[in-house]
Design a protein that fits this description.
With 436 residues, this protein is an alpha/beta fold. It folds into 3 domains: 185 residues, NAD(P)-binding Rossmann-like Domain (Rossmann fold, 3-Layer(aba) Sandwich); 104 residues, N-(1-d-carboxylethyl)-l-norvaline Dehydrogenase, domain 2, CATH 1.10.1040.10; 133 residues, AhpD-like (Up-down Bundle). It has a 9-stranded mixed β-sheet with strand order 1-4-3-2-5-6-7-8-9, with helices on both faces. Strand 2, helix 3 and strand 3 form a beta-alpha-beta unit. Helix 18 runs antiparallel to helix 19 and helix 20 packs antiparallel against helix 21. The protein is elongated, with a radius of gyration of 30 Å. Keywords: Oxidoreductase. InterPro entries: 6-PGluconate_DH-like_C_sf, 6PGD_dom2, 6PGDH_NADP-bd, AhpD-like, CMD-like, HIBADH-like_NADP-bd, NAD(P)-bd_dom_sf. Pfam families: CMD (PF02627), NAD_binding_11 (PF14833), NAD_binding_2 (PF03446). Its EC number is 1.1.-.-, 1.1.1.60.
Length: 436
């Protein structure tokens, strides 16, 4: 049985030896494969398929692309790729290009037979994947989403394919997928493969940002970033730390729940130290700020507590507002005013999710400026410095703004409070006074 009907391939730019070679493979050629888009990923996938003997029919908007890659079968339109394929792999840039390739008299759907499987190798948003599948359904064409990584290994059978779709369609496409990927993972229903790829990309780009902030902090303190790289690679050569806590939560949820509060204290302390260093050196660390603010959620600790636990919540919020260590210095026997400060002001107001701590701080700074109390301004500014919420440049702008809105005398008090905080701040906590 021939792999490609003569009447369908007679007009192609064909290497006849390659066709005969593919036919000699016999059962190994079915299902027949097509590749549309011969960039780094699509071209590499096609090369990998040919290396395994599954000679794909290919198409690219650049007619010379197939020849440059040494590919044997080049079709003049996407429709003709679909006509001679059982599985078509789309490796174009985005959803707009996917639709362009599918539609029209020369598109995939024009040449498709019922039962064709189209695998989307492009990274699309999950709703876009579902929309494309709906568009293909009336033609009897099934869509799989197939995220792939790493792209630079496409030509060497070195990628991992993350597939979403129904079991039968994945089973039918599996021989083709397995011929270009070193591992094929069926992640779940349609959209699951793309969701896995997107999540993987979040890890990649998020870790790049984390590395950028870490290197900026180290460099600001006089450490060559290459030293940081060497230390991290030596301490964790396999990168296991990235998934350490997630593995704990997935594999040992009870142990993770038990250890969570202790880890949270360490995490808060260390991230607070990072914010302190960043504020001192004028380094922007938004990821550090988010990591600290969302630490409990990261560790799976539910912070919402019943109303009778507002004292504990208030003490924890005090530490977040003014720096770790303040709560430990609160006396067990508290005056009514101090008890109200802990339980209500911090346990119920500062702890509300509607505004960030930084936003609440700015509100308090504005209100405090109207009192003309440099000592209270100092308290808030030191808390902001400890948390890395405000830089020296931003404090200068705040002082200027408040001179005009709070009056020149009060603005002078704000300046005095800011100066005192900058001069005395060494990264520790500072106790609030007068119920701040």
């Amino acid at each position: 049985m021939t792999a490609y009907p003569e009447e369908l391939v007679s007009g192609f730019d064909i290497d006849q030896d390659a066709v005969e070679r593919s036919e000699r493979i016999g059962g190994g050629i079915a299902p027949r494969a097509g590749v549309i888009g011969l960039g780094m990923i699509g071209g590499g996938v096609a090369v990998s398929l040919e290396a395994r003997g599954r000679i794909p029919v290919v198409y690219d908007i650049r007619a010379e692309a197939a020849e440059e890659l040494g590919l044997a079968l080049a079709a003049p339109t996407p429709a003709e790729v679909a006509a001679v394929s059982d599985v078509v792999l789309l490796a174009v840039v985005d959803a707009a290009q996917v639709r362009e390739v599918l539609r029209g008299t020369d598109g995939v759907l024009a040449g498709a037979r019922p039962g064709l499987v189209v695998a989307l190798l492009s990274t699309l948003a999950v709703p876009e994947v579902l929309d494309v599948a709906e568009e293909c359904r009336p033609y009897g064409v099934t869509v799989l989403d197939c995220g792939v990584t790493p792209g630079d290994q496409a030509a060497h059978n070195g990628m991992v394919a993350m597939v979403g779709g129904d079991d039968d369609s994945v089973r039918r496409a599996m021989p083709v997928l397995a011929d270009f990927a070193k591992k094929v993972v069926h992640c779940g229903p349609l959209g699951a493969g793309m969701a896995t790829k997107i999540a993987r990309n979040v890890l990649t780009y998020g870790s790049w940002r984390a590395a950028h902030e870490a290197a900026a902090l180290a460099e600001a303190a006089g450490v060559d970033p290459r030293v940081l790289i060497d230390v991290v690679e030596e301490a964790d050569p396999t990168g296991a730390t990235t998934f350490a806590w997630l593995r704990n939560r997935v594999d040992s949820p009870e142990l993770a729940a038990e250890a969570g509060p202790q880890v949270l204290r360490l995490m808060d302390k260390d991230l607070s130290a990072a914010q302190s260093l960043a504020a001192q050196r004028g380094v922007e660390v938004p990821m550090v700020e988010v990591a600290r603010d969302q630490a409990a959620d990261t560790l799976g600790i539910v912070e919402d507590r019943p109303s009778d636990d507002r004292t504990e919540r208030g003490l924890q919020t005090m530490d977040k507002v003014y720096g770790t260590g303040l709560a430990a210095h609160m006396p067990e026997e508290r005056s009514p005013a101090l008890a109200m400060t802990v339980d209500h002001l911090f346990g119920e107001v500062w702890a509300r999710p509607g505004l960030s701590l930084r936003d609440r701080r700015l509100v308090v700074l504005g209100a405090t400026a109207m009192l003309g109390r440099a000592d209270l301004i100092e308290v808030q500014v030191r808390g902001a410095l400890i948390n890395g919420e405000l830089t020296e440049d931003e404090l200068e702008e705040i002082v200027l703004q408040l001179h005009y809105y709070a009056g020149w005398g009060n603005g002078t008090a704000v300046q005095a409070g800011v100066d005192a905080a900058l001069q005395s701040w060494q990264g520790g906590f500072v106790a609030p006074t007068d119920g701040q």
